[in-house]
Amino acid sequence: MASFPSTFPVMLTISTLLVGSFILPTFASNFYQDFNLTWGDGRAKILNNGTLLTLSLDKASGSGFESKNQYLFAKIDMQLKLVPGNSAGTVTTYYLSSKESKWDEIDFEFLGNLSGDPYIIHTNVYTQGKGDKEQQFYPWFDPTADFHTYSILWNPERIIFYVDGTPIRDFENRESIGVLFPKNQPMRIYSTLWDAEDWATRGGLVKTNWSLAPFTASYRNFNAKACVWSSGASSCSSNSSATNAWLTEKLDSHGLERLKWVQKNYMIYNYCTDLKRFPKGFPPECTMS
């Protein structure tokens, strides 16, 4: 899981059918089939015949789940409805991770706040255990009033974070200038709801109000196009990019305009502009247009 610098302001089921050399995703299947509830002593629940999953947090414990499959590149969508009301101190996560000693990870994390204050959407990318690539955003809607779709496109060329189909971040593969990029370690999908009152809300100034517990986040309609990794091999063949367009997908002109709109109006933290963290110069990818 991510660590957070003091300068900050205060992850349906996946079911696939192998056809020839490519993967066909099936939509809105069943959480029982493709996910395991991993911790929380009953605080994680699969409901409504497998179409809904909830995570809860109280003072004793949070909860979490993970995908049964591992993936080496994927385009995934999940609808989340975040903890409503005073969610200060809580963190809901939805991310990909390899969980190795030098792990790769692609993070969506949602930092709770006092009633009436906006959530913070936190993103980060780790490669071989090194992150420090954080960007944060305010949502342009109430993420607790209804479900919204949070998506990650991860292919060999880039990682794009989307909210309701709008790109909020495009992290390109810059290995050509020495920037690490996650492309060698298969990752599972994870999600957790946990207590982070020491830092999550205004740097830890606002604590969790446990009288409001249990706090609950809800998940539905997971969908994925993915290269499943099993027994040391990928389900995608060498020519899969010809049949799986997402493996080479990038933002078109409309997507780039939407990205600029979000970053101009809703970005609240960008590691590429944090002089306190990088007084001797920004990371090399920050200088790329």
Describe this structure in words.
This protein is mainly β and 289 residues long. The chain is built from two helices and 18 strands. The strands form three sheets. Strands 3-6-15-8-9-10-11-18 form an eight-stranded antiparallel β-sheet. Strands 4, 5, 7, 12, 13, 14, 16 and 17 form an eight-stranded antiparallel β-sheet that branches. Strand 8 (90-97) and strand 9 form a beta hairpin. The longest helix is centred in the C-terminal third of the chain and has 13 residues, at 253-265. It is globular.
Task: Give the strand tally.
Answer: 18
Q: Helicity level, as a percent range?
A: under 10%
- Number of H- or I-type helical stretches: 2
Order of helices and strands: EEHEEEEEEEEEEEEEEEHE
How much strand? 35-45%
Give the N-to-C terminal Cα separation.
28 Å
Mean pLDDT: 89
Strand order of the largest sheet: 3-6-15-8-9-10-11-18
Overall body shape? globular
Derived from helix and strand composition plus strand pairing, the structural class reads mainly beta
- List low-confidence stretches: 1-27
Task: Report the C-alpha radius of gyration, rounded.
Answer: 18 Å
- Major β-sheet annotation: 8 strands, antiparallel
Summarize the structure.
This protein has 289 residues and is mainly beta. It has helices spanning 31-34, 253-265; strands at 15-19, 22-26, 35-39, 44-47, 52-57, 63-67, 70-81, 90-97, 105-111, 120-126, 135-137, 148-155, 158-163, 166-172, 188-195, 215-230, 233-234, 267-270.
